[in-house]
Write a sequence for this structure.
């Protein structure tokens, strides 16, 4: 019994410590979320259109989930794993912005990221 307890304690101590994304990554993802919310664009998820504020809340939940699993260590990972397609259906998210052609969300987010990073 003591052996099992000791083994369990040792294995628990050896578990990797989850690292939070760095400050730059967090700023970039927050910047993407702000760009989304301020865009005036509508976003399609699984065939239904949603406003930017609603989509921001949805993507924040997905980001929180991915952070716990260390799957959002970069803004690109956030775009690929959270902001580009439905986790349930696999269908790409779509973006419709005023005065612009409808497009898949991944290129839209990559364009926003490039703007945040500057020249």
């Amino acid at each position: 019994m003591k052996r099992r307890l000791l083994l369990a304690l040792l294995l628990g101590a050896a578990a990797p410590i989850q690292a939070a994304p760095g400050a730059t990554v967090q700023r970039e993802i927050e910047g993407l979320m702000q760009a989304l919310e301020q865009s005036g664009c509508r976003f399609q998820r699984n065939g239904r259109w949603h406003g930017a504020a609603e989509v921001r809340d949805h993507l924040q939940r997905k980001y929180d989930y991915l952070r716990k699993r260390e799957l959002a260590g970069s803004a690109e990972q956030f775009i690929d794993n959270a902001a580009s397609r439905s986790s349930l259906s696999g269908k790409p998210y779509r973006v419709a912005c005023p005065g612009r052609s409808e497009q898949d969300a991944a290129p839209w987010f990559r364009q926003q990221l490039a703007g945040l990073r500057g020249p």
Observations:
- The chain has a mean pLDDT of 87.
